[in-house]
């Protein structure tokens, strides 16, 4: 933190469902599932950082290049003294690019935990998939601007995207604007390799859920009897991630016994991909109109600047 910068931390104490409850609930469903938010324990987050540097996983470097290429144009749209409210990890290089280009931003509000060089940093611990209120923000009243990079919006079902953007709109208030990263539909080969990288980082990231179950819930999962399974479902416009059981087996977890059939799939994540008009249509249903959209020359990824109304 630079000299003179202030850091405020507001813990809204989100009542996060325990890992145990989420696992037992998910494995109790038909078909079985484990929610993707469970990926991000310390090891999972570290694996994801590695995935971001994998040659096949173009998303992070492409979005970063777009932000670097158009930072001044984006800062022009945002204007001076904004309050930048970022949902999710603020640790990435991306917000750094934005903050360096912005004109005297008034505050940066990472809704998770991050570090920044601003006059004011207001960190808020909250579950942003649910509505929450912001604490009073310091500095002169500037525009509230949302920042949601990384195509994490792709994890929401399309109908939930409208709900989520609607909640975000309320959080930003009248005249609020937002910058959001959205991965684009493309050649299935490119998508399939992005989620099945040669180094096996996506597989380790996915199967880390089973490692967590053994460590945290006293599971007796034999990891050699399960496999990473990810593919692009063109009809649904999404990459689907599963953990596949390689045999008929019974596994003990948290004192319970779960039966898995050979080839049974446990769903762990959807990552929706959009064509630009498709995403704009969803944003419009949430009350946002498209001000500008930037892509890379190969149109692999898109960054959208949206305005309410
Ligand atoms: C962080 C949700 C954007 O869906 O591409 C990476 C997570 N899943 N490899 C994505 C992820 C498998 C990533 N997001």
**Computed CA radius of gyration, to the nearest angstrom:** 20 Å
Instruction: Give the cofactors and ligands.
Output: N,N,N-trimethyl-histidine
Q: Kindly, what is the distance between the CA atoms of the first and last residues, rounded to a whole number of angstroms?
A: 36 Å
Which term fits the overall shape? Answer: globular
Order of helices and strands: EHHHEHEEEHEHHEEEEEHEE
Approximately how much beta-strand content do the residues carry?
25-35%
Mean pLDDT: 90
Largest sheet: 8 strands, mixed
Number of helices: 8
How would you classify the quaternary structure?
Answer: single chain
Ranges with pLDDT <50 over ≥5 residues? none
Task: Give a count of the beta strands, DSSP E runs of length 2 or more.
Answer: 13
Structural class category: alpha/beta
**Strand line-up of the largest beta sheet:** 1-4-3-2-5-6-13-12
Helix content: 25-40%
Question: How would you characterize the overall build of this protein?
Answer:
The protein is 32% helix and 27% strand. It has 309 residues and is α/β, with parallel strands linked by helices. The strands form three sheets. The chain has an eight-stranded mixed beta sheet, sandwiched between helices. α5 (158-172) links the parallel β5 and β6 (177-183). α2 packs antiparallel against α7 and α3 (59-78) packs parallel to α4 (93-101). The longest helix is centred in the N-terminal third of the chain and has 20 residues, at 59-78.
């Amino acid at each position: 933190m630079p000299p003179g910068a202030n850091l405020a931390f507001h813990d809204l104490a989100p009542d996060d469902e325990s890992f145990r409850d989420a696992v037992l609930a998910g494995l109790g469903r038909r078909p079985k599932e484990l929610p993707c938010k469970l990926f991000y324990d310390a090891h999972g987050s570290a694996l994801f950082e590695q995935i971001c540097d994998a040659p096949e996983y173009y998303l992070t470097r492409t979005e970063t290049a777009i932000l670097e290429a158009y930072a001044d144009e984006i800062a022009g749209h945002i204007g001076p003294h904004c309050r930048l409210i970022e949902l999710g990890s603020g640790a990435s290089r991306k917000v750094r690019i934005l903050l360096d280009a912005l004109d005297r931003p008034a505050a940066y509000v990472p809704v998770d935990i991050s570090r920044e060089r601003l006059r004011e940093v207001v960190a808020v611990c909250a579950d942003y998939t649910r509505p929450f209120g912001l604490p009073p923000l310091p500095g002169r009243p500037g525009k509230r601007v949302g920042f949601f990079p990384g195509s994490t919006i792709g994890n929401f079902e399309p109908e939930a995207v409208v709900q989520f953007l609607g909640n975000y709109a309320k959080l930003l208030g009248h005249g609020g604007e937002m910058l959001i990263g959205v991965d684009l539909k493309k050649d299935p080969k490119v998508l399939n390799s992005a989620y099945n990288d040669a180094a096996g980082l996506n597989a380790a990231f996915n199967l880390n859920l089973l490692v967590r179950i053994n460590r945290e819930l006293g599971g007796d999962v034999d990891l050699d009897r399960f496999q990473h399974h990810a593919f692009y479902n063109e009809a649904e416009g999404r990459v689907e991630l599963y953990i596949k059981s390689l045999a008929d087996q019974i596994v003990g977890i948290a004192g319970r016994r779960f039966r898995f059939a050979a080839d049974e799939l446990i769903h762990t994540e959807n990552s929706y991909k959009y064509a630009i008009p498709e995403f704009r249509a969803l944003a419009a249903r949430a009350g946002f109109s498209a001000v500008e959209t930037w892509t890379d020359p190969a149109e692999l990824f898109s960054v959208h600047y949206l305005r309410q109304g």
